[in-house]
Design a protein that fits this description.
alpha/beta, Rossmann fold, about 40% helix, about 20% strand, globular, disordered N terminus
């Protein structure tokens, strides 16, 4: 019996465009970070904290992916940072062709860092590469320590893992040791950054790591 994988041509096309995006961005010297998380994990809060920490050192832009609305892009623009909103119209992830259209709007010659806020989802974004230098996933404490067991792929493909909303640990039954152990079994190379984007706790360690990645890319 023969089986036809309908996803293969879609992913092949996406990967070709992603490679083109990556080549363009490398030529322009722009580091691209793809942030993935479930809704409410604190992606936008972390982006704003990252902008605060790095805006005097790097020229930054943000690409916002949402099913609908431009709420998050408006928050970024209020910070004086260029932002492009992509509304997927129901799709649970961004694709490389969407990113290319956003890149055509941005002045790449004037940028050092682009942060992509992917659509809130722990499954779909793992399949689609966009031309980024690094995928990083965010899990918030209220979501529970069992997520690496339920959604292993997103932890496996991430260059780093952020545990956000650390300030809520006293409120929720979250086993830090079990979480760290599960992540390290899935992805031993990925550093784990426990932090609170709203209080600032632990953010500097994340910023130091990200800056190192950007500088290494430039080199």
């Amino acid at each position: 019996m023969s089986t036809i994988d309908l996803n293969k041509p879609i992913l092949d096309y996406n990967d070709r465009l992603a490679a083109e995006n990556h080549a363009l961005l490398r030529e322009k010297g722009v580091f691209v970070l793809d942030l993935m998380a479930s809704p409410g994990a604190g992606k936008t809060s972390l982006i704003l904290a990252t902008i605060d920490a790095l805006r005097d050192r790097y020229n930054i832009a943000v690409i916002e992916g949402d099913i609908a609305s431009d709420v998050d892009a408006a928050k970024v623009k209020d910070y004086g940072i260029p932002a492009v909103q992509i509304n997927t119209g129901g799709s649970c992830h961004l694709e490389s062709n969407m990113i290319r259209r956003a890149l055509d709007i941005l002045d790449l010659d004037a940028l050092d860092l682009i942060i992509i806020e992917n659509v809130g989802n722990l499954v779909c974004p793992t399949e689609f590469f966009l031309g980024e230098n690094a995928k990083v996933m965010i899990l918030s404490v209220p979501e529970g320590d069992d997520k690496p067991l339920k959604y292993p792929n997103i932890f496996q493909i991430s260059r780093a893992v952020i545990l956000n909303k650390l300030d809520t640990l006293p409120v929720f039954d979250f086993n830090r040791a079990a979480f760290d152990d599960a992540v390290r079994r899935l992805n031993p190379q990925a550093p784990i950054f426990p932090l609170s984007a709203t209080t600032g706790e632990g953010v500097q360690t994340w910023i130091t790591w990200l800056s190192e990645q950007i500088e290494r890319c430039d080199g």
